[in-house]
Design a protein that fits this description.
By secondary structure, the protein is an alpha+beta fold. 40% of the residues lie in helices and 19% in strands. The protein contains 10 helices and 14 strands. A 7-stranded antiparallel sheet has the order 2-6-7-1-5-4-3. α2 packs antiparallel against α3, α4 runs antiparallel to α5 and α5 crosses α8.
Length: 400
């Protein structure tokens, strides 16, 4: 399987100017290709990647307006058209219900910049990286590469930092696990409540968040195009980057520990896009990084031979069922944090009870998948679980 290894890049002032030219050329090729596709009348066939490369690179270099495209390597320009083709492929797949990719958009000169080099456009010479028509670059090697990279992407963020991302082939690992399965109930005040162990707290972003809000108020009062406004935007970008780095460090360490210790990890399929529409909770939910956490778990479990992530249905009543006896007491207000089951008399913490139900649902999904692989069809219908007592919400639970 393939994995990405990212490192910090330190170009000189001359190399920064050369990279800016490469970023601009790749951006122009992307925008020209996208504009050409959008100009095709409805009902006619869109041009292929080869045709776009011929029109937007080869023939464009012969014109006066795009003659400067020949000053940079041809490899990142071709990769820009190839990346546009991948974006269209993902968009077509989302129309069929696979993924949530949107129609490709034009790239801006403001914000993040990137350029990708494949084999033939880069090489490793000692501790330095060589890029075609750019020379040798100093790289901060925080860890060794496990194999020879197949491609490298040069990135520049809003703060002005440079990074390189290598794509390498890695082998699946095998590590002995501590537990067979675990369920995670994600939250806001507590990042996640595992079915086994203590609750996991997220880093405190409140101090940095107050500084960001203060600077955003200052930015709203400054004139557009002024030097003070540009300086304030740079300060805001640095603070956002600091928050993002703290959150990413926390999520990486937590996901790595959970994947190494548990064979199966169960999560809820949260509707994050719908939850952030609540203006009171949108900022707090966005700071937690639930979707990024799920993506990290899924990518890291793929690196192990016996690990898996189970995502249960978002409509599963995990907070309405007793994890001990299966008795259902119905919906509870968010202010109710502990519940006493009138069926078995057990006092549950709301989040821990939900985590245990998530783990049980994930284990059931894993067993069902194994049974479906062993037997593709069955002639006998499996009955659903029957509740032990009829549902009467007012008599089922007692909040403490």
């Amino acid at each position: 399987m393939k994995a990405r290894y990212r490192y910090r890049l330190y170009p000189t002032a001359q190399q920064q100017r050369a990279l800016a030219k490469v970023f601009g050329c790749t951006r122009i090729v992307w925008n020209d290709s996208l504009a050409l596709v959008r100009s095709v009348p409805e009902g006619q066939k869109w041009p292929s990647n080869a045709e776009l490369q011929k029109l937007c690179i080869t023939q464009a270099k012969r014109t006066v307006e795009r003659a400067w495209l020949s000053e940079v390597s041809n490899i990142p320009l071709q990769q820009s058209v190839a990346d546009l083709g991948v974006a269209f492929k993902n968009w077509f797949a989302s129309l069929k219900g696979k993924g949530r990719a949107k129609f490709p958009r034009f790239k801006s000169r403001h914000g993040k910049q990137s350029a990708r080099f494949r084999n033939g456009g880069f090489s490793l010479k000692g501790n330095k990286l060589f890029l075609a028509k750019l020379g040798l670059f100093k790289v901060k090697w925080s860890r060794p590469l496990p194999a020879e990279p197949s491609s490298v992407t040069v990135l520049k963020n809003k703060v002005g930092q440079y990074h390189v991302s290598f794509v390498v082939e890695v082998q699946r690992r095998s590590v002995e696990s501590v537990r067979e399965s675990i369920g995670l109930d994600l939250g806001i005040k507590t990042f996640c409540f595992p079915s086994v162990g203590e609750p996991i707290q997220a880093p405190d972003y409140s101090r940095l968040d107050r500084r960001i809000r203060r600077l955003q108020k200052r930015l709203a009062r400054q004139h557009k195009g002024s030097n003070r406004r540009a300086l304030t935007k740079q300060k805001i970008a640095k603070l956002h980057l600091k928050v993002r780095n703290i959150r990413k460090d926390f999520l990486h360490k937590l996901s790595t520990r959970l994947v190494r210790e548990n064979q199966s990890i169960s999560l809820e399929d949260l509707n994050v896009a719908g939850l952030v529409r609540n203006r009171r909770l949108a900022r707090a939910i966005s700071q937690q990084g639930w979707r990024e956490f799920r993506t990290l778990l899924e990518s890291k479990t793929a690196q192990y031979a016996d690990r898996q992530v189970q995502v249960i249905n978002r409509w599963e009543p995990t907070s309405q069922v007793c994890s001990g006896c299966g008795f259902r007491w119905g919906k509870l207000d968010l202010s109710v944090r502990s519940v006493k089951c009138v069926s078995c008399g057990t006092i549950h913490d709301r989040d821990q009870n939900a985590a245990k139900n998530i783990e049980r649902s994930g284990r059931r999904m894993s067993e069902d998948k194994g049974a479906s692989r062993a037997h593709k069809t069955t002639s006998v219908a499996m009955p659903a679980e029957v509740l032990s007592q009829p549902y009467q919400e007012k008599q089922l639970c007692l909040s403490l």
